[in-house]
Amino acid sequence: MDHLACFTPADLAGNTPPDLGGFRWKLLAQGDSWFSNATAKLNAHANLLQELVFKSATAAVNCAGTGNALSHMVDLQSSPDFVRLLAGTEAPAWDGVLLSVGGNDLIAAARTPAQNWDGTPIPLELRLLRRQTEWGPPSAGVARYFSEPGWATYAGYLRANVKHLLSLRDQGPSTGKPVFMHCYAVPMPRPAGAESNDDLGAASGPWLYPALKTYGVPAADWAAVSRLMVFHLAQLLKSMAADKEAFPGLFVFDSTTVPLALAAPGSTGISGDWHNEIHLNHSGCFKIARAWSEAIEMVLEGKHLIQPTSGRKGRGASTPTS
User: From the UniProt record, which GO molecular function terms apply (predicted)?
Assistant: First the structure.
């Protein structure tokens, strides 16, 4: 098994570009901080791509870059290297595309306050959490805190953006090639932000912890609310991959099936498989990436299986939703 060889667009444009012809599989990658190769981020938490391993020699050109990674899906519009390498007139033919997207958008939606700076209310369809006066009955469990209208808005936004990305793929020589996305792991809301050298810009964290406090969600329910949101996202992504007509060639790996060591509630630093509140440390990335690698290689080799619509596989590593 060989680790994924990672290059950047700058490497391709350099005086001695890498010879991608020596690799069986050639992939293009783009994503959020889970893919970023900024030195500060790699020193701090981890890069999921670094832990991918394949039986056949595989390379990826990672457009997440050394600066701030994607904070929102719409940032694809300001990612010229990725768009050029995917759909440009001189774009190479890739065997697949690796994406780490949607998580930052989910966090942003959860952090949307109940009112604007001037005190005017923000409607439920534009946020994921409910004010205490809007909570449902206790019989609804933690779903009582969750804004289904806001989720519908988020889901429509994500679906539209992924469709746009697939259309970009089909404008270039990689038309119809598989696009691989992962779900996210369930973070423990806690006061664990990024260090000052994490290069995460204004989003220094913590992220979910202050939002849940502001909305008055009881601390005993924080972990369950986080799980609810991440599982909603996982189901959304898997439903998209299952819709082959609307999302052709999309494969989603369910990271929520990979057992991880949870962070301790209230902890402020590295805990379990987590570096901070929303970023995995190296052990967490290792666990998810090794399972995802198997799913990716099965698709590349034409051996992928359709994930059952009911029931859960114990490991969830080798059956991506297709």
Answer: hydrolase activity, acting on ester bonds
- What confidence score (pLDDT) does residue 314 get? 38
The pTM score is: 0.90
Give residue-wise pLDDT tens across range 3-26: 999 999 999 988 999 999 999 999
Q: What is the CATH number of domain 2-101+158-200+234-300?
A: 3.40.50
pLDDT tens profile 264-321:
999 999 999 999 999 999 999 999 999 999 999 999 999 765 443 333 333 344 445 5
Tell me: pLDDT of 59 over 70: yes
Question: pLDDT-derived band of residue 40, with 50, 70 and 90 as boundaries?
Answer: low
Burial of 146 (0-12, 13-18, 19+ CB in 10 A): buried
Side by side, the strands of the sheet bearing 58-62 are 5-7, 58-62, 25-31, 96-100, 179-182, 250-253
Domain boundaries, the chain: 2-101+158-200+234-300
Angle, helices 222-242/103-111, rounded to nearest 10 degrees? 140
83: tokens are 């768009």
End-to-end alpha-carbon separation of the chain, Å?
Answer: 24
